[in-house]
Amino acid sequence: MIRIYIAHQRYDAWLVADRLNQAGIRAHVFNQYASSIVGDVPPDVAQPQVWIERECDRERAQVVLKDIETAGARTGSRRCQSCDEESPANFDLCWNCGETL
Ligand SMILES: [Zn+2]
User: Could you tell me the pTM of the whole model?
Assistant: First the structure.
């Protein structure tokens, strides 16, 4: 497993993992509930992280990340009416509960 991305927000990590999986790269989110312990441990340990399974996917994963960063320049977030989680503005569905945003 290779750590490919450290997110500031949970939905950020989910966005990255989702895009990677769509690109055929098996990715997982870790630490998604750990932000409450920031302050007790170094931030790069406590923040949500995206890991990929295979070393051979690393280069493609970097390309996907680059695309997301470029697209992310024009995003904000919006709050789900159903579960109150925030999702990136470019999401059509809530990442958490699947409700239309
Ligand atoms: Zn929701």
Answer: 0.63
